[in-house]
Structures are given as structure tokens and as C-alpha cells.
Fold this protein.
Amino acid sequence: MPPTKLGRKRSALVPTLIVVAVLVVGFVFFSQVYADILWYGQLGFLEVFLKENGTKIAIFLAAFLIMSVSVYLSLRLAYRSRPVYAPDSSLQENLNRYQAQLEPVRKLLMVGIPVVLGGFAGTAAASAWQTVLLFFNQGPFGTADPQFGLDYSFYLNTLPFIGFITGFLVSVVLIAGIAGLLTHYLYGGIRLEEKGLFASTAARIHIAVFAALFLVLQGVNYWLDRYSTLQSASGKWAGALYTDVNAVIPTKAILAVAAIIVAILFIVAIFVGRWRLPLVGTAMLVITAILAGGIYPWVVQRFQVTPSELSMERQYIERNIALTRQAYGLTNTEVTPYNATVTAEAGALRADAETTANIRLLDPNLVSDAFGQLEQFRQYYQFAPTLNVDRYPVEGDVQDTVIAVRELNIAGVPSGWVNEHVLFTHGYGVVAAAGSRVQADGKPAFMLSGIPSTGVLGNDETYEPRIYFGEYSPDYSIVGAPEGTDPVEIDRPQSENSDTESKNTFEGNGGPNVGNWFNRLVYALKFQSTDLMLSDAVNSESQILYDRNPRERVEKLAPYLTVDGNAYPAIVNGRVKWIVDGYTTSKHFPYSTPQQLASATEDSLTAGGRTVALPPQDVNYIRNAVKATVDAYDGSVTLYAWDDQDPLLKAWQKVFPTTLKPYSEMSAELMAHVRYPEDLFKVQRELLGRYHVTNVDRFYSNSDAWSVPTDPTLGAQTDVKQPPFYLSLKMPGQDSAAFSLTTPFIPFVADGEEPRNVLYGFLAAEADAGTGEDGVKSPDYGKLRLLELPRSVTVPGPGQAQNLFNSDTTVSQALNLLRQGASEVINGNLLSLPVGGGMLYVQPVYVQSSGASSYPTLRRVLVSFGEQVGFAPTLSEALDQVFEGNSGATTGDEGNVGQTPEETPTTEVSAQEKLQSALQAARAAIEEGRTALADGDFAAYGAAQQKLQQALQEALDAEAELTGEAPAGGSTPSPSPTTGG
């Protein structure tokens, strides 16, 4: 019966729908690729896209062909060599039924299975594109390993590539071999009979060939394992130790030779037809691997090494120490004994005037709310939760500065496609405040602020304030318009107090053009937006800005880099530039102790979500190879080869020759804002806790191991590490103060033990690269200076310093005053400074009221030196309290800013004096009460309590006079010692 018209229509409809679906999927895929080509091309990095994806495609095709052809040939040969007749049995009858069911689709499966497996293999292999490119573009390190005498490039570049090739070929042999065996079994070439397992001659040859190939590859792997022992981290120390060198490495060589011999026996068996010898050889190889590869090394370790471990492992520990320090850039750490004192004497800080004048009181982790309340102006602006520390010249002096950009807050924009993608496109302006001082009322002392921007650092005329590319920019924006068109983008408020906004048109080259219909269609598909396709807000000159986060932008353009978790802004040559640090890393450096980057870079800021830790990646080699800049206005990216001696970076320069510029092309102004990266410093300090020790005996005993203290400002219940801090300080032995990244060390304790919060070490990395000249890097940039403190004197660590603050009675009483009216007292960052011949701790104290629009203001400064504690409205006063009334220090907050001398009322001075006098009276009353209790004189104790009550009330009145608030009414509550803040 001929098919009906309806049947013919249905039969034509299905393939038509399939073709349409394939075309649609193909066009969507093409649009994604085309969009990437436009994006990379607009930035001038098309080479990266083409080289990366070209390499992936080449690897994919090679792996696909090798896997699919191998599996196909194995299936085909097994099928064609199937027995013509197989003896009847119940099992064979079942197999015959399977054959009958498979026969209609056999040819399809013969092709489909290899294609699918080839696709999986190609996809997996393509992920190794960086390994392949490094192998073909590698250069020598110029240094040989201490065991085999091979250049380090062999371990970082050649060995991973060979391991990738052999691993892939092993998977091919196993998968193709198993596919062939299953086919032989299905078609009777291998079967169970009464006499046992039967294998046809063709099946035996098939098995022998794949067994021989597998054994050859296993032999190669055994031989490579000899070198891989130098990268092992399974022992107490990384690298090949005594047992590895004297038992494992020789055994691996024996097993490699034995595997090749057994492989030859399988090939010989094909021709002579005797299979007993290769089977016996295989069994012997397995037994040898167990005995020689496992039991023998255990015997050597247990009975030869363990009883005399230090003497047997000495040279290998030396290798581990030396090469770990080399791999992490710790070799030239300058170690200085620091005989710290804990006695605070008058004038002790006079010689440290450069350091004390730059002590940073403004905590960048706390003042974001203050920046927001004072400088946000509109709901569609925002500041990052953690601000950045930089330095800027002011009247000839370089000052530490807390800096932020006023970014667009898309959550504060009225909803709607036009609002979110056309009208509100950018943030506006940089806000910067002095790090070492505040205004009289505790607010930041701004050096650049307002809309339009004004301040000692410049104004809107001296730099481009618009922030189109930032950490909080929306996913995409449509910008640009033909010349003469009225601007539509919301630019900024006309002024700080204005209700109207000025308009702006983007004039840069920041993204691909979407002025033609094809490009609009491509990006409409990419962002799944019909508005982008249909809106009349998109014109012939429109550009689309996307991938706007500076870190993510650099990651796309330099995919071989691990990017630092913090991008920081700087005003450079009239532009706002985001500076991003990039690292080359490896996990293959011989004898180097591995670190997990996520764990090493985690601290109280990353744990709280304020900053980003590095990814969970294991490395044992790291270099800050690249400094990148991202222009906040047009998104242009520049990559500078910062560590031009790094062999890994040199290899990537060969791969992408047009993408990296030498750092000699950096301007002096940019160089002045480059700083030592935090994440690299965190990794290095984690290692230096152990590897500051270069003496093998001390290193072996672990008696002088250190650790980074937990953040004491979070209380005793937390175990997250204290973050490092940027400070301008003069280290002992330095000629002048330098912008540095710092961290203290306390003794290492095992898990579960109580930490000893005494100071053992202090590390500072010189973080300032500037020299005032274009393209010239400071020779001291990155220099690590480590102070080792004596064990004969107990110098308090950060935890002890915080405990001193919390337990000091006078401080506690004063903090209670600050808490009046439901105000919250917040401890700022606890800074450690090696000055005055000892260790000075400085902590700003912030007070935040309970209102919805409240923000922290700096109200007090806590200082300790040894066991002495100071607590005052200014750093200068607090230091004088500690150092017998005259510290000799010059501080940045001497004289409150925000009021001219003519405006400074005498009541302000008298109020300060009243407060200090009241606190001293309270302290004296407390001491009188303690003495009376000790003597059992309760009458005197009652009189002392009355004096204390009166002193606290006077302090409350003085505090109210200082702040301009009404004095607290009612009676003052009886004081009791508390742990403040």
C-alpha cells in the first residue's frame, strides 16, 4: 500500500526539524565564538584566543583520532576474526540472542562507540593545552637538580608533558583492549568451556599485542617515576629522601626493565605460540612490584632510616630547605636578630619619627560604611566592603592613603532593561582619605572627595573620574552615540546636594560595536536579551561593555596566570587604573614543599567575605611574574612582564609574543603605585614559619617553628589568621622608612594545643617599587626582612596585646562610657611595629551609634609596649601615656584636623583635660578600693566606690562635652571590669 500524503508529510517533517535544530544550535555556538573574537580583537588580544583555542582544537583532534581509530580497529579486528562456528551451550545460546539483537545496529555501534569515546578522550586531553605549549616553548632554568643533575625545566615542563602522553596512551590501550576483549567474548572468540577458558588464536594475538603495549607504557611510567620521586610530598619532607634514593629509585629502574622484558615475551609468544612464559613473567612482575616496590622500601625505612633518621636524612633535608626557599622566592630573606626590650622609657620613639608619623589609624576594613554615608550621595553608588591602602605625595611628602572608587550599585537602580543597561552605566570618582589622621569628630580626613571631585590629590580636571570597569560593574552596558546626539547616560549628580543629574556619552573604545544587526543578534543570543535586539536605545555607534571585573578581565587575557585576589585602584597619569598581580605557578618543582593556595591565603578578611582567597590549587613554585593594569574608563588592559627572569614567563612570552610589555615601559607614576602583592606574601609567610630555619638540626626538631597568629580582634573563639598589613615603617637596619607589607609570628603549636601568644618574629616585605624614574624598579622592592626576637625576653604577641587592652581596668571603664546610648565599640586592626627597641602595638577604636545610617568613627587609640597600656583620643597622647609622659614620637594625628586654630574652642581643650583628669581619678579610686579590700577596711572601700562613681560621672560629662551630645541622665551604673570590644 503506498504511503499517504499525511505519512509523507510526517516523514519529511522529522528530518526537517532535526536540520533546523542543528542549524539553530550551530548558529548559537557560532555566535558565542564570534562574540569572543570581537571581544579579544577589540582589546588587541586576539592572539590569545586563537592560540589557546587553536591548541585545544589540535589536541582534541589528535586525541580523538588516536582513541577513536584505536577502538574502531580493535572492535573491527575482533569482529572479523570471530569464529565461524562456536560449540553449542546455554551460554552460547544467550550470546547468540545478543548478537541477533545487535546485528541491525552493529555497523552504527562499530562507528558510534569509537566516536563517543574519542570525543570524551579529546575533551579531556584538550584541557592539557598549557602543558603542551609549555613543553614546546620551554627554556632552561640554568640550575640542575641535586639527584639526577637535570635542569629544573625538565621537571616543570618536560616531565608533565611526557606523563600526559603516557597517561593518555595507557587509557587508549586499556579502553581499546577492553573493547576488543568484549567483542571476542560476544562472538565466541573467548568462551568458557568444560576444560576451562578458551581463547581463539586471533583473540590470543589480540590480547598479546595490547598486553605488550600496556607493559611498554608501564615500563616508561616506572622509569619516569624515578624522577617524580623528587616531587613527592608523601614523606615528612618533600622530595626524594634516603629510602627513595636508595630503595625506591633503583627498584623503579628494575621494574621498568622487567616490564619491557615481559612485553617482549608477549610479542615472542605470538610467533612461537607458547603463552606460559609471558604469563609467568607477568606474575613475576606483579610479585616483584609488591616486594621490591612496597615491602623492600618499608624495610629500609623501618630498620635502617628510622633508628638514625636525622643522620640518614640530613642531606635530603638540606635539599628540601634550600629548594623550597628557592621555589618560593625566600632565598635572599634578610634575617636580623632583634633584641627587643619590653621597658618603655621616655623619648624611646624619637629615633623612629618616620615610622610613628605614618602609623595608619584609618582601618580600611572598617571605614567603608563611613565612606558610604559621607560620600555615596546616591543609592546607585557604592563602595567595596574593604578599601585599599596606597600612598600619594602631598606637599612633598608621601603619605599612606586609604582609597576607594565610587562604583555603580545596580541594585540601587530602578528596575528595567533601559535603566540597568543604557542609562546607569558607570560609577563616578575616587575617594581617598589620609591613613594616619582623622577629623576632630573621628570622620576620615578626605584628601579627594565629593562630586565633582576636589581635594589635595586633584579634581575632575586632573583625572578621568568615570568608572565603567570595576569590581561591581553590571554584566553589560550599551554605551556610545553618534556625534551631536544628546547624551542619555546618567553621569553624576550636578553637585553633592543637587536633585538633578548631569548626562554623559561614553567616548572611549571599550567594547565591541553593536551598531549593525548581525552583531546585535550575536549579543542578544549571548545575553539572552530580546531588548538588546529590538531597543531603539542601540544605535549605529553603540558599544557593548562586558566582562568588566578587572580580575576576571586579566584572567581571560592571560589564562596561564593565577590572579591575585585583590585588584586595587590608583590614579595614574590622569586615569584611574586597576592594578592586578598575576602569578606563574607549578606543582612540579623538585624538593619543594607544596602549598594549597586557598588555605595559605585565607585569613579573617577572606573568611568574612571581604576579600577573595586564591583558588584551591596545589603549588610548590610561584612567582609574581606579571603586573597588569585595567583602565577604569575604557577597560583597556596592559600586561607587564614584571619578573622577566622567570623561565615560565619566558615560555609564555614565546607562546603569546605580542601580549606582554617589558616593565621598562611602565611610567614612573604607575611604578610608584605598584605594591608587593598580598597573596604572594601570605604564601611566603606560611612557608617562612618553618623555613626561616636553615640549620638542619633545628629544622628537624621543629623546635623553632612559627605560625601566623589568629586575628585577635575577633575574639578567642576564632582560629582564622590575622591578615598582613601595609604600613610605612623603618625596619631596624634600614636607612629610611619604606612602604611595606608586614606580619608577626608566634610559636607554632600542634592542633588542639593552646597557642603561646608571645612574639618570635616579625616579617616585612618592601612593597614600594617606585624610584621616580620611568621604567626603573626599586632594587629593594620585594626584599624580605625578618626580625628574630630573643627567647630570653618575653615579648607579647598580638593576642597578648589584645588581652592587655581587654583586661585593663581603666580601658574597660572608658569603653563602657563609649558604649553609652547603645553605641557599639569596634576594635580596628591591631598593628605591630618594631620601634623603640621593642614591639609597639597600635589599635584604633571606633564607635558606631545604633542608627540605621550610622557609621564607625575613630574615637580612641589603644597602644601597648611590653606590659604598658595607653588609651587616649589621639595616638600622640596614648604614646605619651606609655612612654613616661613623653614618647618622643612624631605622629600624624598631632592636632585634630577639621577645625582651624581660630575655630578651635577652649572648651574642646578643657573637655579633653576634664576627661583625662576624670579617668585618672577613676584609676586612683579603683586602686584605693583594691587596697581597702585587701586590708579588710570596708568603710574605706565604700568611700573609694563613691569617688569612683563621681569620677565616672565627670568622665561621662566630659565625653558628652567633647561629642556635643547631651550628658547621660540618671545615675551612673556601678562599674565592673569588662572585656572591651
Q: What stands out?
A: Confidence is low (pLDDT under 50) at residues 897-909, 966-981. The chain is about 45% helix and 15% strand.
